[in-house]
Design goal:
alpha/beta; globular; two-stranded antiparallel sheet; binds ligand PBG; 10-stranded mixed sheet; 39% helix
């Protein structure tokens, strides 16, 4: 290798065109997915206290907001339901008249080309707030699979383009794949939340989705954040069970995991820039110490640089509006 003064790194940093020409990582709106919370009701647009600038929408409001999103150049969303009823079998999660099912039908009718990914989980629909069936204070794995598979089929039946299980039960990808295939949905891909860690960064989301566990925590099924090798095992298991794409979640404190997964596996890797990560950026805005736009670009570019093919981020809508990409 040449040495200074023959070699000067700064030559390629001289101007913006040159810097862009040799940029190793690209971030575009095609790499971003915007999460949405949909609830029952008419013309509702309820601000989410923990996520400034974001709302729970009833279906009409959702259609309006998604319309603006699509016009600004974003074509993928991840949908979460905020149901009006909860019970011990999460019935509203797989009902054809459930809030997500109704919203997906309305979305696909108005925006046939919009990519609608649905979150497949039980927590927001269970009266106890856990991601599986609870018996004697324990979250049961195998009986929960049947319900998760039912949710996935009901979402596909409503027109969802991709289903994304986030529950962290073992064997759910295989159960969902089998159920989809048995119901003529063999073309619907599964994006599995393969490496989902127990994280304090989900706090704002749980307020938005009303999905906090009523007792104990999720440490019995979500991963321990101290573990990296285990994430590789989880991802390998999900791919073997039929996951078409895998997700690592959260993103910012887990860039090492994203990086290793992208080196090891050939399926597309998604990263979830979660609610707490968004909330931190929003909170820092009030300090007037950080240029928000630059910070958002830096965060999302870093997640791409680590190896994520695409990113689920609450910043997506504002980023598209800023028209800087
Ligand atoms: C449901 C689910 C959660 C998130 C996505 N799907 C919350 C949780 O596991 O408690 C978190 C998303 C975010 O924080 O933005 N299981």
């Amino acid at each position: 290798m040449m040495k200074f003064p023959a070699l000067r790194s700064r030559r390629l940093r001289e101007n913006a065109v040159l810097r862009k020409l040799v940029s190793e990582t690209h971030l575009g709106l095609q790499h971003l997915v915007m999460p949405y919370f949909v609830r029952e009701g008419k013309e509702l647009r309820t601000p989410i206290r923990a996520l400034p600038g974001l709302y729970q929408f009833s279906i009409s409001g959702l259609l309006k907001d998604v319309g603006e999103l699509v016009r600004s150049g974003v074509h993928s969303i991840l949908l979460f339901g905020v149901p009006s009823e909860k019970d011990s079998l999460a019935r509203s999660a797989y009902s054809s008249k459930g809030i997500v099912q109704k919203a997906v039908r309305a979305l696909k009718k108005e925006f046939p080309n919009l990519l609608v990914i649905t979150d497949v989980c039980l927590c927001a629909y269970m009266d106890h707030g856990h991601c599986g069936i609870v018996h004697n204070g324990r979250v049961l794995n195998d009986p929960s699979l049947k319900l998760l598979a039912k949710i996935a089929v009901s979402h596909a039946d409503a027109g969802a383009d991709v289903v994304a299980p986030s529950d962290m039960m073992d064997g759910r990808v295989a159960a969902i794949r089998k159920a989809l295939d048995a119901n003529q949905f063999s073309d619907i891909p599964i994006l599995s939340y393969a490496a989902k860690y127990t994280s304090s960064f989900y706090g704002p989301f749980r307020e938005a989705a009303g999905s906090s566990p009523k007792f104990s925590d999720r440490k019995g099924y979500q991963m321990n954040y101290a573990n990296r090798q285990e994430a590789m095992k989880e991802i390998a298991m999900d791919i073997e069970e039929g996951a078409d794409m895998v997700m690592i979640k959260p993103a910012l404190a887990y860039l090492d995991v994203i990086h290793e997964a992208s080196e090891r596996f050939s399926v597309p890797i998604a990263a979830y820039n979660v609610s707490g990560e968004y909330a931190m950026v929003s909170a820092s805005e009030g300090l007037h110490l950080f240029p928000e736009r630059d910070m958002v670009l830096e965060i999302l570019t870093a997640i791409r640089r680590a190896g994520a093919d695409f990113i689920i981020s609450y910043h997506t809508r504002q980023l598209a509006e800023w028209k800087i990409m």
